[in-house]
Amino acid sequence: MGYHHIAVEDIETTPERPCTRRSVSEAAGLESLGANVYDVAPGEQIPLAYHTHDEQEEVFYVSSGTLHVETPEETFEVGAEEVFVVEPDSPQRAFVPESADEPARAFVVGAPAVDDAHAYED
């Protein structure tokens, strides 16, 4: 059996990201799912690009602020204590607009933990 009790603020941030990313998966040594905490300031986005996944399902839990998720059909506003789910082959880009009054914090889980993201263009 294995257990991990981790303070989010003790996790090193991932360099060269468009926002602050802390990998819970890496800190705990998890292999089957990706789990990250993102702090997104106004004008920042979570992904490196507007993208889609072949296999990975993603769940965004917003703990504070409002996260916007752009899709080809519309842009969703996901507020604090709300969840947004993205199925495979569903283009998306999560961000906080420059005009926002506050940052957002989101806990994002993706499974399986595969590197299957592809840039999406309309």
TrEMBL record:
Top-rank lineage group of the source organism: Archaea
Assigned keywords, A-Z: Metal-binding
One Pfam family cited in the UniProt record for this chain: Cupin_2
Entry's Gene Ontology molecular function annotations: metal ion binding
Domain Cupin type-2: from-to ranges: 37-109
Residue span of region Disordered: 1-22
InterPro entries: Cupin_2 (IPR013096), GPI/OXD (IPR051610), RmlC-like_jellyroll (IPR014710), RmlC_Cupin_sf (IPR011051)
Coiled coil: none
Annotated protein name in UniProt: Cupin domain-containing protein
Organism the protein comes from: Haloarcula salina
